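User: Here's a protein and a ligand (pyridoxal-5'-phosphate). What would the complex look like?
Assistant: Let me lay out the input and then the predicted complex.
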Amino acid sequence: MKFATEAIHTSYNPDEHNRAIMPPIYQNSMFCMKEIGEDIPFRYARIANPTRTILENTLASLEHGCAGFAYASGMAGIDAIWRTFLRPGDTIVAVADIYGGAYDLLTGIYAAWGVNVLFADLSDAHALDKILAENTVKMLWLETPSNPLLRLVDIEVLAAKAKKHGVLVGVDNTFATPYLQNPLDLGADVVFHSATKYLGGHSDVLMGAAVVKNPELANALRSTTINTGAIAGPMDCALVLRGIKTLAVRMDKHQQNAAELARRLQQHEAVEKVFYPGLPEHEHHELAKKQMRGFGGVVSVYLKNNSRKAANTVIKHMELVQMASSLGGVESLVNHSASQSHSGMSAEVKTALGIREGLLRFSVGIEDIDDIWHDIQTALNQLNR
Ligand SMILES: Cc1ncc(COP(=O)(O)O)c(C=O)c1O
């Protein structure tokens, strides 16, 4: 089956659920047993719930893995993965331009727990050779395209280097979605999503998702997940299952709009630089063409006037495009990364990563592109007054 078909039909058989066309919401915490020791598929919903199982199998299928896991939020999912595979004294190497919340979790909690945390610019894959030669690394954590500057790293090349040193490779695939990129096929061991974003797709659910490559990894992650219990509830699982059914058609429209918006933004005199992997000028355009099946729905810009005041002027003058911390919903949104998603980073780290005051990240929705552009253009025009 091709992706769009698989997203609708995989891992669900109506015959097993009273012929219900849509997966039912099993709003149950437990399932009864007829006698001691009876072997039943579901007992207690922290361990497994039928609605969650359908979603987890769907995720595993779309990400070409052997098992999927659904968590109460993206951060709960990242924490479950890291807590499963890292111990005090272990070293994790993460891409420098990692999502702000993941950065905070590593620097604030894992470092205090005794994990050595190294951040590295891995856009040149050779940078990993030196790190692997000088450190005993347990895990490599990639995020590509990254948030908010849409930088890419070469999953296949980096994973091959990591494998030679027995390093586990995890990839945050939130921005690309399984429609556009499958990290497990490129050598990763674990793929992660903030399902809050494109998988849910309607800004009405928080969820994390993980898919692993082999049964050994699955058993380890299952044990953490069951014992720590940050699992997704059945209602949320039903919402994400519904979101996934339209993922292909939404992503097509998101990226069609994003590509057009990126081109129009490039022409605007208030804009210094546009970041979108689909632009031929983008520093990782060739890698995006090799590694992804499209360029995604996020576009970021540097305003010529690199100030919080200018960014705020644009934000305040948009009516359709709301300012919000998230992305990946049907509606267009703007994010001021310096004060929102990446506010936990020090000024020095933000400067090193290029997270400026005059940086705006647009999550381009599926509205009509002319309406989106009219709103953004009207706001940008305020800067030239
Ligand atoms: C790339 C990326 N990873 C992880 C997360 C965390 O996910 P959640 O907010 O669902 O906990 C986010 C949220 O913005 C994200 O953008």
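Summary: The chain has two domains: 3-245, 248-384.
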